[in-house]
């Protein structure tokens, strides 16, 4: 196996499985952009698809009793949003669109704390990560191609995502 193939497998495996153990996803997105350019987005989406299915079933199995026990202990101090009131799609969008929360925490938290159907969880999660992955991959591709234009585009996409996320969170909280 060549070093290039090993690198590609490491990126794919890092997104699909490494994030399950707490590794940050952003460096893998940037490395994917550097390795494959934006054309590698379908590969990254496949790795994310695997990650979301795996995280859902791990959270619903092993982690759910622990999460319920933890939140029962602290329920007087913190209130979780009611998924039935908000709706599972809006809940996933609200939680996943907040920048800065590690993907592993969101992935396990959504599946462990709320009764969300697996297909809704996976495909809404994939939809939200599509934008963050694209922006991050643009950063990686711009660094490899030494393109300031691509880097500015990536920063613009990040800025737009953050503005959309903040506005969505405010609108959802106001309701």
Describe this structure in words.
- With 175 residues, the protein is mainly α.
- It has one domain.
- It is 78% helix and 0% strand.
- The protein is built from 8 helices and no strands.
- It has helices at 3-16, 26-36, 41-73, 83-86, 88-96, 103-113, 118-145, 148-174.
- α1 (3-16) packs parallel to α3, α5 packs parallel to α7 and α7 (118-145) packs antiparallel against α8.
- The protein starts with a helix and ends with a helix.
- The mean pLDDT is 84.
Describe the secondary-structure layout.
Layout: H1 3-16, H2 26-36, H3 41-73, H4 83-86, H5 88-96, H6 103-113, H7 118-145, H8 148-174
Helix pairs in contact: 1-2, 1-3, 2-7, 3-6, 3-7, 5-7, 7-8
